[in-house]
Every structure is written in C-alpha cells, then in structure tokens.
Amino acid sequence: MHLESDSFFHFIRAGYVEPWRRESHEQNTTVMHIVRNGLLQARSPRE
Predict the structure, then answer these.
(1) Looking at the predicted structure, is the pLDDT value of residue 44 above 90?
(2) How far apart are CA 31 and CA 26, in angstroms?
(3) Side-chain-side CA neighbours of residue 2 (13 Å)
(4) Which of 16, 38, 35, 36 has its CA nearest to residue 27?
(5) What CA–CA distances, in Å, run from 11 to 18, 40, 46?
C-alpha cells in the first residue's frame, strides 16, 4: 500500500503551521499518528 502522508496536512482547517517549522512538532506528530492508525486499520483483517 502506498499512502502519501503529505496529503493529510491539507485536511488541517485552522492553525496550520508549515511542517518544517520548529513550532509544528505537535501538529506533525498528530498527523503522523493519524496516518499510522489509518495504515494499521487498513492492514487489519476484515470480518
């Protein structure tokens, strides 16, 4: 599976901080957790 994680940053509606800025750490961590959880859910067996 290929997932372009940068696309998830476009879903931020308010308070967006460019991901390369130092003050974006919390935002980047949150986005990466969302991406990780989505991948884990996609890989889990379906019932």
Answers:
(1) no
(2) 9
(3) 1
(4) 16
(5) 13, 20, 27
Token pair listed for 32: 């990466």
pLDDT in tens, 6-42: 888 888 999 999 999 999 999 999 999 999 998 888 8
Distance in angstroms (rounded) separating the CA atoms of residues 33 and 4: 14
pLDDT band at 1 (very low <50, low <70, confident <90, very high): low
Q: Which amino acid is at 10?
A: H
Best CA proximity match to 32, nearest among 2, 6, 13: 6
